[in-house]
Design goal:
Layout: H1 2-13, H2 24-44, E1 48-49, H3 51-54, E2 56-60, H4 68-79, E3 83-87, E4 93-98, H5 102-116, E5 124-128, H6 130-158, H7 161-185, E6 188-189, H8 191-218, H9 230-266, H10 273-302, H11 306-334
Parallel strand pairs: 1-6
Antiparallel strand pairs: 2-4, 2-5, 3-4
Helix pairs in contact: 1-9, 2-7, 2-10, 4-5, 6-7, 6-8, 7-8, 7-10, 8-9, 8-10, 9-10
């Protein structure tokens, strides 16, 4: 953990960094591919809507030795419809059959009791009308629409419209992937699923807003300098908050993973899958979109502005000039002149020429003392 903390501090100070913005085309391509797969899954398989949305009957049994596969067969033979059977933590079964009225429900309950060899009184039955599910779905869509409008308005005021647009694209990306995975996996869509989808919107925005806040702070008076482009600062903002985003996402995913894999898978509490899968996928997609989608998209939108284009031109020109000067300095230091061709320096004392002899004696030239 100390190494991770040191890594986060170095990323925040800019000592090391990963070029997220420079490789944004790769992230865009990966996101488009995943989104297309999710849309194809929705179109081909569709969502497995629960009886809360279709209407039908729910039968709950006490502890029984009948397997899930056998119960599905019994329920289909008794009702003539496909059934969704889940193993409960108590050892009983939860059997859901869509499109049933009261009379057919009573007959199905009696037939199930006979096939499963249990007392009919030990099977609880509940009828759900489709109008209740339609009302839930309509309210969910209304809530989703109002939430997105408020988010866009708030981000446009607190930051700017480009960041609001990027955050909206990231939200749509997360919801599409989550619903697409539901279609591909075949999990039943229940009111718990809707709650999970609405919950992940807040988590998806959390990391995005953290990066946007850092980006807004660091880009004040950006046009008054010529060291960094907007993309450079955006990349530094992602790296500076990267470890924090990873930590918060992992901490949030751990309990949700416990609900999904241990509670729903190992312990057999299938009802937990309704909300835990949407939360798990949504949290992971939200962390991904804040780093690889939202911030790179903001950088693209900002650098389309004339001021940012001019800034980028000045920064690149200054970098090119600095690179040229550095190259010339290296040439000078490397030595374009051969030292052997240079004239040798005079080393040692210099001999004075002797003066003419006067009277058989010689003395150096100069004034007499």
């Amino acid at each position: 953990m100390s190494k991770l903390g040191n890594l986060g501090a170095r990323l925040h100070r800019g000592e090391i960094s990963y070029d997220f913005i420079g490789k944004r085309k790769i992230w865009y391509g990966v996101s488009i591919l995943i989104t297309i797969t999710a849309i194809v899954g929705l179109a081909v398989r569709g969502l497995n809507m629960g009886i809360d949305f279709q209407g039908g009957a729910v039968f709950t049994t006490s502890k029984t030795s009948v397997s899930v596969a056998q119960a599905e067969t019994y329920a289909k033979e008794a009702s003539g419809h496909d059934a969704v059977v889940q193993k409960l933590g108590t050892g009983g079964l939860r059997i859901q059959i869509a499109g049933m009225d009261t009379e057919k429900s009573d007959a199905t309950k009696a037939k199930l009791a006979t096939d499963m060899k249990v007392d009919p009184e030990s099977i609880n039955s509940d009828l759900v009308g489709p109008s209740w599910g339609d009302e839930i779905a309509n309210k969910a869509w209304e809530g989703l629409g109002i939430f997105m409008v408020l988010v866009v308005i708030y981000l446009a005021i607190a930051f700017e419209w480009r960041m609001a647009l990027a955050a909206l694209v990231a939200l749509i990306h997360d919801i599409t992937i989550t619903t697409g995975i539901y279609a591909l996996v075949g999990f039943e869509v229940t009111p718990g699923t809707v709650i999970g989808l609405l919950t992940i919107l807040g988590y998806s925005l959390y990391d995005t807003v953290v990066v946007f806040d850092s980006l807004k702070e660091q880009t004040k008076d950006i046009t008054k300098q010529t060291r960094f482009t907007y993309s450079d600062i955006a990349n530094h903002s992602i790296n500076g908050t990267l470890v924090r985003s990873i930590n918060t996402t992992v901490v949030a995913l751990l309990p949700v993973a416990g609900l999904l894999f241990i509670g729903g898978g190992f312990l057999g509490a299938g009802t937990l899958n309704d909300i835990s899968l949407s939360l798990f996928v949504g949290l992971a997609a939200g962390a991904y979109s804040s780093i690889f989608i939202a911030t790179p998209l903001v950088a693209d939108l900002k650098e389309a502005e004339p001021q940012m284009k001019a800034l980028k031109k000045r920064v690149l020109a200054k970098r090119a000039q600095a690179a040229a000067e550095e190259e010339m300095a290296e040439v000078r230091v490397g030595g374009s002149e051969d030292p052997e061709d240079a004239a040798p320096a005079v080393v040692g004392p210099r001999n004075q020429p002797a003066s003419r002899n006067r009277g058989g004696r010689g003395r150096p030239s100069g004034k007499r003392r």
